[in-house]
Amino acid sequence: MGCPVLPVEPSDELAARLARVKYIFTDLDGTMLAPGSCALADASGEASLDLVSTVLDLKRAGIEIIPCSGRNRSMMHEDSRIFGFNSYIAEMGGLLMVDRSDNRWEYFCADMPYNPAWGYTPHECIEATGILDAFSTRWPGLLEYHNDMSTGYKYREVTVGLRGEIPDEEAREIIRASGAELEWSDNGFLGYISAPTTLELPEGVRGRAFNISPLGLNKGRGIERFCELRGIDPGETLSIGDASSDFLMADYTSVFFLVENGLRDPGAEEFLVSHDNAFVTRGRIVDGWVNAMRCLLACK
Fold first, then answer.
1. Using CA atoms, how far apart are residues 104 and 81, in angstroms rounded to an integer?
2. Residue 114: which of 215, 200, 263 has the closest Cα?
3. What separation in angstroms does the CA of 133 have from each of 129, 180, 289?
4. Are strands 237-241 and 255-258 parallel, antiparallel or unpaired?
5. b/e for 154-175, b at 16 or more Cβ within 10 A?
């Protein structure tokens, strides 16, 4: 398809938009990080300091990077600590770390009723519906709980992480039939499958990461709530990702970048046609991320 590629020299209108950007909401796996979730490699897996040097350049320019991922709190906390980030959005928008230095955070459950006074996490409320039993037995060998790098899915607080390869519509039908105020989302292709695993995917099937989330919860609405809490002007924001779960960020930020590998997503063409603020980077995963950020910096 003829996709809108991020130009080497942005037009006056796009350059003006990028010049205003002070906040970057970025996906991690398949976007900012190299294969294997590595920060010291390029898209081909070769040793590289390009990501680290670009992160430093952004910091020197006064631009804040806010990771926005399906990862859980413990993973995001360590990721942000290592990179020196002060905030993050975890669990597909469901956990907002507004200020690490002050430990200011909140759960965000969108349209699912939730009250912290109940004494349960949103994840525990989802478990109580019984819907997870249907998912855990329906597709043996093709679906399992995502073990979050061996820390265990029970460490999630808002969503339920799954991985494998199953028909999305069948998954959504299970949720609809339950009457629970939940929804199913695709979080992109798996770069690799960490042990232990029960998956027995057919040869050539990479598998995807999935989330069962509170109704209406997505990265875009998580960003919207985060900006409300921080008093951030959406006109000063940029988002970047690689999967359909990231596309929703485009509706809540001034500009959206799709790293080149994101074109494999079945919904990419329709998304790009319907969003005039979305552009495809030159380069896959971390290479595309670095090129996009260098373009941004050139406009500052």
1. 15
2. 215
3. 9, 14, 39
4. parallel
5. eebbbbbbbbbbbeeeebeebb
Q: In what order do the strands lie in the sheet with 160-164?
A: 143-145, 160-164, 208-214, 182-189
Name the burial class of residue 54, with classes exposed (0-12), middle (13-18) and buried (19+) by CB atoms within 10 angstroms of its CB.
Answer: buried
> Which residue is associated with the tokens 């951030």?
232
Contacts of 71 (CB under 8 A, 6+ apart): 28, 29, 79, 90, 91, 148
Q: Is 36 helix (H, G, I), strand (E, B) or coil?
A: coil
CB 143 within 8 A of CB 162: yes
SS3 state at 135: helix
Q: Residue 234 has which token pair?
A: 């959406």
pTM exceeding 0.85: yes
pLDDT tens-place string over residues 81-136? 999 999 999 999 999 999 999 999 999 999 999 999 999 999 999 999 999 999 98
27: exposed, middle or buried (C-beta count within 10 Å: 0-12, 13-18, 19+)? buried
Do strands 23-26 and 64-67 pair parallel, antiparallel, or not at all (unpaired)?
parallel
CB atoms within 10 A of CB 261: 20
User: CA–CA separation, 10 vs 29, rounded Å?
Assistant: 27
The whole-angstrom separation of Cα 240 and Cα 54 is 15
What is the arrangement of strands in the sheet containing 88-90, beginning at the earlier edge strand? 88-90, 95-99, 104-107
